[in-house]
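Form 7-S
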Amino acid sequence: MELSSLLHELHLSSSEKPLPSAPLPPITELLSRLQEKLIGVSSDSETSSLIGRVERLFQTADPDWLFSPASANEDGGQAALESRCEAVKLVFAWSLLQVTRPSLSPHLPRLLPPSLLLTDHYRPENCMLGVRCLHHIVLNTPAADLRQFNRAEVVYQALFKHLYTTEAAVIQLVLSCLLDLLLVLETPPSSLTPSSARRKPCRHDDVLRLVLTHMEAENKVPMRRVYASVLPPLVDRMGVAVCRHLQRLQRVVLGYLEIKDPPEETNRLKVLEVLQKTTRAAWPRMEGRVNTLLRCLLRLLVDVSSDSQLDDSVRHELTNQTLSCIRLLDQGSGGPVQVSLVQVSLTCCWSVGLHFCSD
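Output:
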């Protein structure tokens, strides 16, 4: 039976007319046909029409046909039921990811709830699938439609609680989605003009505060890399409002610069980038922290210069980024860095200090 005729007969059967005489194929077979049909469509209107008909099908179809409870009691029935559930989940996600702006917005009331349910699943793979669906919805739905009926706030709360997870793959997707969702919910503090109202604490502060808190106590390398990769854009969006988090941010910078991350030293490079952004944005508040930060940066230069296992390109990048941080600290604090560097007596740092002073 063709997919179009099957959908038509099932739609008719939702009324008081008799059921179709031909036996219905399994739901998994119907979903496979739906996938082939969606791949072959040539326009957004056809896609929307087909998704609408399938939506009506799931609303009106017999539950015993969708998920037969009797089949679970038969031999192998539970496995068949689980395979149906897996098929429904994957086809839903695949179908959603094919719909882009502006065709997605009219179907938002039907697409958002299943995506939220997937994010709440106890299995990490299902949770990740739900977060991918939510991220696709955020990227392909107008901000006004997301804010309508407080949808964006619901998505934010659903994602925020996943920041407490210990799965690196899950939290990486969650943080990436949150960065895009925050732009829908509010204006970043760095985008506010000097003449605007006082910068009050916002959701950006809540996310940054929680990320920094987790970074301080985290000892798993994959999690540390995920946090370090998301920290630069967060600090960049905060702008001068990062002053509210300087004490905690300083502890994170010092802790991450002390620990190696071979072979590419991703964590150290990202944290050096964070230090540069922070110094540029909050330079009036950095003078009292110069001595502590300078000591850590000089120690980093010693470690990099004495580490024979580092690749030359990585060593060169670390050295350049560290020197850039020292220059910014010197400019922001009014020059005490050069005075401190002249007093450095460590042989391995002396050439670096002279090179900096000559610049």
